[in-house]
Amino acid sequence: MNNQSNEQEINRKRKNNMSEIFCTHHENLRVEEEGEDKNDLTLRLMSFRPTTRPRKQSPERNQSNLPVGLPSFPPPPLPMSQSVSVEPVRGSLRKRRNPSKANNKDGNNEIIHPPFPWATNRRATIHTLDYLLTKKIITISGEVQCKRCERKYQMDFDLKEKFLEVGTYIAENKSAMHDRAPDIWMNPLLPTCQFCKQENNVKPVFSGDKNSINWLFLLLGRMLGCCTLDDLKYFCEHTKNHRTGAKDRVLYLTYLTLCKQLDPNGPFDR
Ligand SMILES: [Zn+2]
């Protein structure tokens, strides 16, 4: 490779540094998991990457916070080549079913007005990371309130940075969780109040309407444990997790399912 293209390469990497870290992280996970299956891996990673350039170590990449030696986890159910398969055109065009009635039997696919730009029109469902980045949605906001000074304000999370943290934690610890949320998820460390500076004291605000729970914000802040058991059961009910049980079980399912919604190819199979 000549110098000029090398330099372009580095510039592109600088620009997409976070994305690069994220993808690299994923790749590390997958390579450990799948070993020889690199072609398949490349296909799936393409959805995260703005270009299909060859991979190369970048000097400014800071991976010091990333774990090494992640535990194994089950492979994703479908490689991309299958999940994007196109159905052949059938003989006659039948009228589409009313979407609000689709699968109404178990109430999973009722159409709602998306409560946030990062939420879809299906209950308890968020868009994929890929979609959000394409739409330039890189900051996820939510309303919080301090338990001491009672000020309410908006808190922002960097989507990629926070998802990387959550995803890394899961990849590292999932095998030891045994389908139950760990204590740190059950009793999350809350943010410090930006006004009175009280530590561990800012809680997310819930409107009371389960349709407008800010699932992605709660995931990124690792504050899903602030949901009631009822909220979490609502989430599981509408995401085909028909399992009920103690809070640590439904909380675990909620974390894994939300991560899977964000990153369908990530290490988040339950
Ligand atoms: Zn405060």
UniProtKB/TrEMBL annotation:
Record InterPro entries: DUF7086
Species for this entry: Anisodus tanguticus
Ranges for domain DUF7086: 129-262
Protein name as annotated: DUF7086 domain-containing protein
Annotated region (Disordered), positions in chain: 48-115
